[in-house]
Design goal:
disordered N terminus; mainly alpha
Length: about 850
Amino acid sequence: MNRIIVPAAIMLLFAVAACRGQTARPATTEPSVSQLIAQLGDPDRQVREQASKELWSRGKTAGPAIRAAAESDDPEVARRAKILLRDFTYGLTPDAPREIFDLVEQYRKGDDAQKRTAIWNLGSQGIPGLRVLLMLRQEERDPDLRQVIAQVLAPHEHDVAVWMLADGQADNVEQILRQTALDSPGAAQDYAALLLSTGQAQATLAKLKSEPPTRRNAPLMLALARAAGDPAAARMAAEQSGSPELLDAVLVEQGDFKTLAARLQTNPQRLGPQQRLGFSCAYCRLAGDDAGFANAARQLSDLASQSPEEYSVCATALMLNGLADEGESILLKHKDYTQASYFLGSRLKFAQAIELPKLARQTRLDEALEVSAHAVGALHFTGQTEAAKQATKELADENRLRNDYPTWEVLIDDAEQLQMTAEADEYLATALSKTTRQDPIVSLLEHGGFGDGDAAQWWQFLRSREASQSPVQSLRRLRSLYDHTIAASELTDLAETARRYTADLPVTERQGWQASVARMLAANGRGDLAGQWFDQLAADSSDARVLLAAADFEAARGNWSVATARYQRAWEHDRTRAAALFLYGWALSHAEPDKQHEAADLMKRAHDLPLGSESERWALFESLLAHKLSDDADKELGLILTVTPLMSYERTNALRQTGQEAADRSDYLTAAGLWDRALLVNLTGNISFREPWANVYVPALIHKWRALGLIKAGQIPEAIKQASMTLDEVPADADALIEFANALDKAGHGTETDELFARHTAVYRKLIADYPASGPGHNQLAWAQVMCRRELDDALKNARRAVELEPTSTASLDTLAEVYFARGDAAGAITQMKRCVELEPAVARHRRQLARFEAELHPTTRP
């Protein structure tokens, strides 16, 4: 058995632990920290020992003075101070659990088996035990024991590093990560993130680049290169890593799609055929290799025929690459009528969409119900409104027996579109009353217009307390809460019922429910009651999420001192939650303006805290976004893209979010590039859109952004090509046509605008020729005409016809108002918008439009 070297820090520790039960000296005799530090160098050994014990018993409060003493010119003072600091690094302070001391004693004195047992037991002691293991791994000389420690630590290293960083031990964290970064990709990612925050990433990378590249140092070099913004070094590290997937990810990040396409050709066996061809399509398309793209697309279509079990994957890959028609064709060929029903009507292929239920009933009876529900929209658009309403009611009757969950979602949407409001609520209530634990109730409520995640809790509460009422009555009560139309007395009674309801809930559920009630009270104008609920929560809860909700309430009311205290408590209860730390600093900056420096430091530490964790950084980003702290949210997005692993769900979301923000500021080419990269993950088969329709819509959106960017860049022929691709994929998107037309007109390309407008409005003209009773068809054409400022006489005729066919459609009324306004008839526009406000008083856009038209009719003169 190998002998281990026990550090003096641990030896001292047990001497101190043995004295913990001694009677404390009177407070009046206690020396100061500075006196104790001076005694560390006393000639009397007993005085030195006693001073060490006393300083240790003072814990971290003596830390700053001990750190200064560690730099003393007196060797004995410096030595003993460093031993104490090492103890604190271990987490061995007076408030550490007694079990930790016992396990360290077992590790120090035990045989090999006892040491191994101590290691595993330390690993089960949470952060305190794991911190000890981190230090033991550094000092252990037995390679077998080091391996056991590493095995126990592997799943927890990041958590320990974050905890120590939160505790202000950045130097210790850097030391630990530096020693583990070469052996753990996760530690390498954390180390790079830490060095970026301290400004040392580039210097450390430069030093590492001077060493021979190996598979062992490749992950660290890659993490540092990405953090430091050195793409050449990142690529070299990825090539050296021996991981084809990692190299692919780096090439995607750097946009080298030509090399990616070539790699697939060189090693085609690395991926399954459907994935290989899907990526080949994408890489060739993005590299501008039209021939390669066409070849890969053709092979995908062939594969769907040759391997029928892969047809759905092939169809999706084609759609994601902008080949919607080809993807639809595969679905129909393989009689997948359910998937096909998501696309045909939405792409204005109404004859096929209406025919689809008949085909499903002939060969796929189990799919016929959902397929028929999707066809209702096609019936409505083509002017067969009464048939659509009748079909909706009949399908709902059938589904009451079948209770097919996806069909309920479609029927709720159908009823809303057909202005069957009462039926939509009845379908939603019926579906909710039939749900099981496996059904995604939140999704169902979203289709009913309840986007708030609390709605599911409220529904369950209302049904449990109002069982004598029908599900529809409970739904009306729920809607009154969310529409803020509930009577004040009724709300007060409901809050009291909710208070009694909490007594029956487990503690973990109870506090979340109480926070939900408080938020609802505040949203309905009862801040007084909400404050009482939040005050009680803040007093009773140790749940950081609940404390954050209570703090948010006070921050929203401008009570910054109370908010600061609550954010601080949330942070103290969970010192790994970066959002709590940031919001603590944010509130402090408002509560005490003279503490701006301290507040800024807290907020910076919050950005540093997640290190290389994509999930923790995304949680921080979402919190910052929810609090409208856009600059810091953008900073966090940038960190997600540079210091977290290349292949993660959160990083893909960050690409999309960054792309959307680029589009919002009209940086369209950047937006298209970011979304192109994000979309590639859908080709892996591991991630898919919740709504199948997005497989067509998202590629079309990317083409739209690229077209708008190319127009700004003056590359008109290529822009027209991209615009046409958008409108071919999603012909119903009149707004995209409007954006193209306005951008081209602004750039002085009216002739190209006229050609694009004529070509793509021809689709709408054919629709109203085929379906002259189509209100939506006439409205679609009129909207394109008026917003492109073309054919205003015909636009007026089409808009009037749309309103005649659907007198209560606010979409058509809004279009008619816009046509009147464009023709100089502000009074006519106002009349139509007033009707919209009457029909939908809660829609803010109607009121904005009305104000816009009234301002033209009654202009004001400003000084």
